[in-house]
Amino acid sequence: MSRVTTAEVCVIGGGPAGAAFAVRLARLGHDVVVIERSAFPRPRIGEALAPSIWTVLDLLNIRDEVAQAGFVRVEISILRWAGGVDENVSPPPGHFGLMVDRGRFDAILLQAARKAGARVLQPARARAPRARPGGWTIPVESAAGELLVEARFLVDAAGHYSNIRKTEPLAGPSTVALSGHWRNTRLAPGPNRIEAGNSCWYWGAPRPDGAFCAMVFVDAAQCSGRRRREIEADYRDRLTESGLLRDCLHGTLDDGVRLHDATPHQSAVCVTENSIRIGEASFSLDPLSSQGVQAAMNSGLQAAVVVHTMLTRAANAEAAKAFYRDAQKDTVERHRVAAARHYAAVAGTTPTPFWRARAAAPVAVPPMPLPPPPAFAGRARLSRDVRIADVPIVDRDHVTLRKGLHHPALGRPFAYLDGVDVETLLQRVAQSDSLEMLGRELARDTSGERGRRLVSWLVERRILVASE
Ligand SMILES: Cc1cc2nc3c(=O)[nH]c(=O)nc-3n(C[C@H](O)[C@H](O)[C@H](O)COP(=O)(O)OP(=O)(O)OC[C@H]3O[C@@H](n4cnc5c(N)ncnc54)[C@H](O)[C@@H]3O)c2cc1C
């Protein structure tokens, strides 16, 4: 007979997404169990963190632990992209990203989940969850034998590769990363390096253990059916063609070349009435952004508020699910468009199939640049294209509905504009006799200058038009 334990919420996977989720949900007072199959520290791809990671670490209260962990500060980044000219894409002075050891970084996160009150079963491997009335049964294998976790809500944080769900078909060209760790290279220590090649792109950075990580991103077809030896030879050949990374070849390669699927993906269903997918179990971004870990943690933090709402305010459950779906779609689309633009820039100068296929990923059409709106100063009204309808937003710890302003010039509706809610905006527009007065009225909620800027912003987008 298997042992049985109960939990309100069961999280499968203790990577950045699962740990961030568990920290937030446990702090909101829920009974959370996390199942992680590997003993930490364990190696993991995805070690470069942008300077914006510090905001997320602050939310989780682990800035000091991460700052003291001996990771490499990344203060300089060089990009040799379209046209082959080096661009300095370093963060502004005083800001820096990190090259972390994911084994240790993930251990710090999971420890924070424990401190917040989550129970962590590790190393313990979840098998396919089974739906049962009122929730889920998750069979778990560990050295202590089989355990059944019975939970009301299930969180899939098992990453890209998973034994608990079917992989979904990919859209667009498939990319593989060939990755190697080099020692005793002639590379100058310091900067992260990104470079466009003829039919690949390169990424390299120094690791906390003193090795240098050099990756080559190639079309997946280049690797299929080839032996490891051939793939390593191809990896070395490509490095000789790189201006920024070829000096690796003067060093020695630790443990050969590793292959990683680097194709972005998105799951069709990210949330149901009693389950949610977070991090790479839900979507993966093009590694060009170096934002995968942060996006995974953000999705975990958002999901915690969504699940908290679903468990405590049933009336808002649909709004919570809609919020999560929109947030995931937004993140994926923003990164997809940014990556396709970068690929298109290189395709312009290097029109090989590698770049053309990636640049061709459909890019959302940016709003047409409109001619300046007709000048007016008198009474304003909202354009007939404006629609007012509820939108789900996060209000502290819950998802809730607020009146939102929808308009074709906006990528997505807003419920607040610079601190002014839509209801107040509607009232002030109805009561003001001139744009000047509207600016002053809105300034009761914002500063005077911001009130004026807000009015110009609305006029430029033709959300506010002259009243006939
Ligand atoms: C080539 C490449 C380069 C990348 N470079 C970067 C980068 O520079 N910067 C960056 O931010 N991101 C990068 N990424 C993305 C980054 O690796 C991921 O975004 C990140 O690891 C996702 O975190 P996660 O928590 O969703 O999943 P994971 O980190 O994969 O964590 C999932 C966890 O679930 C556990 N698990 C899986 N199945 C089970 C099971 N059945 N039972 C129990 N536990 C289970 C695993 O052991 C693992 O610990 C890169 C990705 C690739 C492919």
Automatic annotation (TrEMBL):
GO molecular-function term, one example from the UniProt record: oxidoreductase activity
Keyword Protein biosynthesis attached: no
Record EC number: 1.-.-.-
Domain FAD-binding: 7-215
Keywords, ordered alphabetically: Oxidoreductase
Class of this enzyme: oxidoreductase
InterPro entries associated with the record: FAD-bd, FAD/NAD-bd_sf, Flavin-dep_Halogenase_NPB
Domain of life the protein comes from: Bacteria
Pfam name, any one: FAD_binding_3
Protein known as: FAD-dependent oxidoreductase LodB
Species in which this protein is naturally found: Bradyrhizobium ivorense
